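dude i think i finally got it to work??
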Amino acid sequence: MTTDIAAIPDNYDTPWKEAIEHHFPEFMAFYFPKAHCQIDWQKGYIFLDQELQAVVQDAELGKRFVDKLVQVNRLSGQEDWIYIHLEVQGSAQAEFAERMFVYNYRIYDRYHRPVASMAVLADDTVRIPVIVTDDSGIVTGHSGRA
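look at this
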């Protein structure tokens, strides 16, 4: 009996999710060094899986990727939430900007908290780097390839 390789779904998400959960400070330092420098790592961080799950259940945009919502404290003492969205795919998807917008808005709408949204994309699309900040001024990084 042969197995059709194309029929087996790729499971790129699990290793990335585990890497983010187990190595969050290092993940932030590598992909978002400017944001990493603004976080007070001595105070720790909390993954807000239940809070994100409530938003995911409300969304109607289809399959999700690796998404994490994390509570951090800045060196200034301010508490912030960071939404991490990671897509491991072979090509760009037109719905990406909509997914980011919807999740960011739904998190704000449900919890009345500004959220720094960050994305790591693993396709071959060349993007113009754009510096991104949240409403409170935290520099979250730039768009570009993983």
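The longest strand covers residues 79-87.
im so relieved honestly
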